[in-house]
Amino acid sequence: MEIPFDIGNISGPENARVAQPEALGRAIKNAKRPLLVVGSEILDDDLIEKAIAIGKKGIPIAATAHSMKGFVDRGYTENVHLTGLHELANNIESRDWMGFDKTGGYDLIAVLGGIYYSTSQFLIALKNFATDPIVRCISIDRYYHPAARMSSVNISRKHTDEFKKMLDKVIENI
């Protein structure tokens, strides 16, 4: 397993703390309005089932890039919203956006399966510009994301089974 800082740009003086999967799951569970943001790598790694399991816990999903295809192919579109990552960042940063369900903004954003450099910039934007309400960001991805508040460690693709077990622990704690 790699050290948590193998991949990453520095997003400012305060970087994410590495968290155990159980703590990441509890953070999602304890949020009043969490949102899971997924990207196209959930299709490459066949992680779509993990995202669906999180969705079935009542967590809305923002499907970016072409990740929506995985949900449609599996017949799971309940509370899954197709959106662009940049559009989503702008919406979350807006004081006026009421979320996909029109009942209020989100207080926790969890990222999974996005292309690293895009997700990194998304998290940096939210860290620096989402102010009302304050949005906490966590990464349950295979990559350490310094701009998140909490993040998993880097887990290389050759350890995909280990990564899936880590996600199972996250899901168990939601």
From TrEMBL:
The residues forming the signal peptide are none
Q: What processes does the entry annotate via GO biological process terms?
A: methanogenesis, from acetate
InterPro entries referenced in this protein's UniProt entry, alphabetically: CdhB (IPR003704), DHS-like_NAD/FAD-binding_dom (IPR029035)
- Which SUPFAM superfamilies did the record assign? DHS-like NAD/FAD-binding domain
Q: Which superkingdom heads the taxonomic lineage of this protein's source?
A: Archaea
Task: Spell out the protein name for this chain.
Answer: Acetyl-CoA decarbonylase/synthase complex subunit epsilon
